[in-house]
Amino acid sequence: MQIWEPHALGETTVVHAGGVEVAVAGTTGVTVTPVAEGVWLIDAPEATGVQWKVPCVNTAAFWTPGSGTRWVPPIWNAPMSARLTMGAPVVSLVGTAGANVCTAALAESVAPVSFTGGLIEETGEFVFTLQGDGLRVRIDLSDRLYSAALAGVAEWWQQGRHLPPTPRQARLPVYSTWYSMHQEVTEEAVELQARLSKGLGCETIIVDDGWQTADRARGYAFCGDWEPNKEAFPDIASHVRRVQSNGMAYLLWYALPFVGKHNAAFERFEGRFLRYLDHMDAAVLDPRHPEVREFLVGRLAQAVELWGMDGLKIDFVDRFATPGGDPAPADGADCAEVDEGVRRLLHDLDARLRRTRPEVLIEHRQPYTSPGLWPYANMVRATDCPLSPQENRQRTIDLRLTAGPVAVHSDMILWHPDEPAEQVAVHLINALFSVPQLSVDLAAQRPDQLAAVGFWLGIFRRHLDALQLGVLEPAQPEHGYPLVRAYDGETTIIARYAPLAVDVPGTGEVLVANADPDPRVVLYGEGEARAEVFDCGGSLVRADRLRFDAGACLVEVPMGGLLKLRRD
Fold first, then answer.
1. Is 69 left (phi over 0), alpha (psi -120 to 50) or beta?
2. Reported pTM
3. 493-506: pLDDT as tens digits
4. Is there a contact between 410 and 436 (Cβ–Cβ < 8 Å)?
């Protein structure tokens, strides 16, 4: 079998998954098992790489978990990497109308792996190349929706694992201090925003960077000792109890890998760094050293054990990975690989926190989204994309497609003080299929802005099961998901981000959120339905009876507004 340059694998064994020839490098002990219609598992415990090709017919996109562009790449495209601390080992070639062409995934692994997907210009075929040490590959060639194929990968990653259940609290709206306050956090400011956000429908507050330092230079020189800034938080335990007495859960931010040059821990652990970051005024600790892990676990655990926090926002786990390759471990390390040190660190932290709070809340963030981290986090947030609702939409949907049991959170939502209420609603609708995190000064908002926030947070809460736990069907990944649908057994919720027609199911309640400036929503369906149209603040605009006699009808829904349809 030919191996397509420039991704030569060397001597190979050829096996078959359906009608596809798969070249497996570096092994002869390969088994191929059909597990579902059009789905195969290839077990090659001694392999160093696998490669196959499929005809590029009716293809529209190449989906990856990295939230980049979705165009079909050429074969000379640079490879992607995935490891415990960065990325997830899955890709999908998507056809027209969202049909799966080929979805490929690897069993979760601590060790780094690489994926390359690309078009052979001479033949119009698409080549998949997966490389790593010891591979278990899942290849889905079924013609179901690509979103269903990716959901199948997430289910496969969960098989045989005993993961702690995700608390309901992890799926309820959140207020974050980062964009609204940055490092200017104090007990009084946090308590005010906690009260105001609770009244709008938030159930958790996350206090971000600034609690541990009086410095306001936005660097990390004062991270590492992790003690409260006494000027801003003179009695942090009492402060936490006051916030919780209002019914809010409380999470505290930690930049896990960093120890700044102005901390006592910097001198203590010098020689046990992975590298020093000049632009951050901080070093990255090496988790392969047991004394480093013990120190970090103790520092973070005091937030829950001594101060009464409900959980932690654990930031920058991806920074444990060193660009260009991890350095060799120094004397005293008890494992060779950095990612194994990270796994041991997170395992020990999780075990200790759960002794005090069994349903502890832990937030991780893109790009550290590996299924290998599922035991240690029940919330994962889109990476920072301030005031970019379209990017927030794409990132949260990308996360949802393979997040498994973990609750997906939006990046913190903010807007300019002069933002129209309709556009505030658009920001929220773009995060509709995730847990929204707000980060504006709620005391400075106009009544119409607050009405939009309260109305849409009510939709998030009331329809949580359909939005977060139902079947998710995002259309056209090559265009950033301009139409997204989610449904459970009772409710279908559709978000429209472009002037596209909407197919209305024949049963159950249907909600259509309009985030596009064009209010003319074309509906296709059958029979009749009662329709109610609400503006961005939840006020009823009109109530009509719709007939789909000609198969389609037109309803005007204002930007930021909502259409509710109910069958008799």
1. beta
2. 0.96
3. 999 999 999 999 98
4. yes
> By the 8 A CB rule, do 359 and 167 touch?
yes
Confidence at 9, pLDDT banded by 50, 70, 90 = low
* Integer-rounded Cα radius of gyration of the chain: 25
pLDDT at 1: 35
Residue 38 identity (one-letter amino acid): G
- Tell me the backbone φ, ψ of residue 105, rounded to 5 degrees: -145, 155
Instruction: Dig out the tokens for 88 from the structure.
Output: 């997830």
Alpha-carbon torsion (127, 128, 133, 135), positive or negative: negative
Q: How far is the C-alpha of 296 from the C-alpha of 256, rounded, in Å?
A: 8
DSSP string, 142-164: --SBHHHHHHHHHHHHHTT--PP
Cβ pair 316, 255 in contact under 8 A: yes
Closest by CA to 495, choosing from 455, 469, 459, is: 459
Locate tokens 């006051």: which residue?
242
Burial of 13 (0-12, 13-18, 19+ CB in 10 A): middle
335 contacts 360 by C-beta, under 8 angstroms: no
Q: Cα separation of 471 and 486, whole Å?
A: 5
- Residue 218 is predicted with a pLDDT of 75
Q: How many CA within 13 A on the CB side of residue 33?
A: 8
Q: pLDDT tens across 388-419, in order? A: 999 999 999 999 999 999 999 999 999 999 99
């990325």: which residue's tokens?
Answer: 87
Residue 308 per-residue DSSP state = -
Query: What does the alpha-carbon distance between residue 193 and residue 212 come to, in Å, rounded to a whole number?
Result: 19
Are 46 and 29 contacting, i.e. CB atoms less than 8 angstroms apart? yes
Distance (Å, whole) CA 295 – CA 35:
45
CA angle, corner 14, sides to 12 and 17, nearest 5? Answer: 140
135-140 β-sheet, strand order: 31-36, 39-44, 135-140, 100-106, 90-95, 59-63
Specify the DSSP class assigned to residue 468.
I
Distances (CA, A) of 322 to 175, 283, 317, 390: 32, 12, 11, 30
Side-chain half-sphere of 122: how many Cα atoms within 13 Å?
3
Strand partners, 131: 49, 114
Per DSSP, 551 falls in state S
Residue 189 CA to residue 248 CA, distance in Å, equals: 15
How do 100-106 and 273-277 pair as beta strands? unpaired
* 146-158 vs 389-402: helix crossing angle, rounded to 10: 50
Other C-beta atoms closer than 10 Å to the C-beta of 504 total 22
Residue 333's closest CA among 271, 282, 268?
A: 271
Residue 255 identity: A
- Of 181, 277, 174, 172, nearest to 224 by C-alpha is 277
- Strand 204-207, strand 249-255: pairing: parallel
Question: In whole angstroms, what is the distance from residue 450 CA to residue 197 CA?
Answer: 10
Name residue 88's amino acid.
A
User: Cβ distance 310 to 204 under 8 Å?
Assistant: yes
Partnered with residue 249 across adjacent β-strands are 204
Whether the Cβ atoms of residue 338 and residue 275 lie closer than 8 Å to each other: no
Q: Which helix (H) or strand (E) holds 197?
A: helix 187-200
Q: Using CA of residue 503, residue 154, residue 150, residue 170, what is the dihedral sign?
A: positive
